[in-house]
Amino acid sequence: MSRPQGLLWLPLAFTPVCVMVNSNVLLWITALAVKFTVIDSQAQYPVVSTNYGKIRGLRTPLPNEILGPVEQYLGVPYASPPTGERRFQPPEPPSSWTGVRNATQFAAVCPQHLDERSLLHDMLPVWFTANLDTLMTYMQDQNEDCLYLNIYVPTEDGEYPSLAESGTCWVRLPVCPTAFYHVLCMTVSMTQLLSFISQ
């Protein structure tokens, strides 16, 4: 038996039911499904404009019922790569880009020698060395092209103060303070592991 055109057969509790569906209704349902998929994608991967081009970040939910999600923009260039003729020179503004730059992953960190773990345990605070193995996974990608910012933004609207004081930020883990205190927080990916000792 052939199915009549314009009819949709739906099994309902193992009983075939014939429902008349207009093709325009199917088109609207499909359009709404696509729209909500795009909206969900935009909410998950927000795009913002900068002076140099657009960047796509990542909305990160936090594993806490009190803290809201934050938007993070990772590996955002704040200067041109200090390589070649620019090596050991003052930083220059980054080049503009077209399209949307992906800012959902950390950029490379500056080259640093981290083989002597016992020295690190002696020189760094306990909260830092307790997670040293996890931290070392972020230190694997080292490159002279390391002048990038990691920006964490609260998801609620409003004007919020910065946590920076005298050019240094007291935040150790920027994501949670961003959500809890509703502040904008930036970290510099070029900061070396041992630079915390001098502060």
Automatic annotation (TrEMBL):
The keyword Signal applies. Belongs to the type-B carboxylesterase/lipase family. Coiled coil: none annotated. Residues 45-158 form the Carboxylesterase type B domain. It comes from Bos mutus (wild yak). Keywords: Signal. Gene3D superfamilies: alpha/beta hydrolase. The keyword Ribosomal protein does not apply. This is Carboxylesterase type B domain-containing protein. Pfam families: COesterase (PF00135).
